[in-house]
User: Which sequence fits this backbone?
């Protein structure tokens, strides 16, 4: 297996099965972050991730981390917190502020460069990228964003400036998503945070099978309309 250099003159990607085993899932480099290429990548189970100053790198890891929204794990402490939660949760109210929050709130640095921000803003304007916002009164305290593929949602990043804010974003979104027919959330690579919320690893082959099926299905037309998903008691 070898790393493929993408051309700016074609949107073609190699098969995800050609990805390297080490580092796990690295498939290709180069190309661009145009909406057409990004959408082509997501439709094939591929996503960009790279450090500032590096070329664009494209990944499709095996195994793949996913979360079944109907099986979102809520701990006892989170249940108690949510019963008296001070947070209000909205959808698609402040995409730009959410991606900025994901960019800024990283002690270890960020891969979300200005070019990446611009690219996902374009996807948002086209109706493919979406944000979930968590507010304490009028202050944005957490959130997440990602890319929709039918009844599958590809989570990209989240941030939290208050206790349980990002957990609240994912929990409230998962419940609303499942209620309206959403079936799978892509978490890309498993980490301790997503594992604690119920994310699991499945073979890449199985993820791609789900993706091929779910991206052709549709959520209700109202689902991504800007609105409130949760109001504090």
Assistant:
């Amino acid at each position: 297996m070898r790393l493929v250099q993408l051309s700016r003159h074609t949107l073609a990607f190699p098969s995800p099965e050609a990805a390297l085993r080490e580092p796990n899932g690295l498939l290709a480099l180069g190309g661009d972050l145009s909406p057409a290429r990004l959408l082509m990548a997501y439709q094939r189970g591929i996503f960009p991730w790279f450090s500032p100053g590096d070329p664009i790198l494209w990944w499709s890891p095996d195994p793949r981390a996913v979360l079944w929204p109907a099986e979102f794990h809520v701990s006892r402490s989170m249940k108690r917190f949510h019963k008296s939660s001070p947070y209000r949760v909205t959808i698609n109210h402040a995409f730009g502020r959410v991606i900025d929050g994901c960019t800024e709130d990283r002690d270890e640095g960020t891969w979300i460069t200005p070019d990446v921000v611009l690219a996902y803003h374009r996807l948002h304007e086209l109706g493919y990228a979406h944000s979930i916002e968590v507010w304490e009164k009028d202050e944005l305290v957490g959130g997440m964003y990602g890319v929709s593929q039918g009844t599958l949602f590809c989570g990209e990043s989240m941030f939290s400036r208050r206790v349980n804010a990002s957990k609240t974003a994912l929990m409230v979104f998962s419940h609303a998503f499942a209620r309206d027919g959403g079936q799978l959330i892509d978490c890309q690579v498993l980490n301790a945070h997503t594992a604690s919320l119920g994310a699991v690893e499945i073979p890449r082959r199985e993820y791609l099978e789900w993706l091929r099926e779910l991206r052709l299905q549709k959520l209700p037309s109202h689902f991504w309309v800007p609105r409130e998903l949760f109001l504090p008691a």
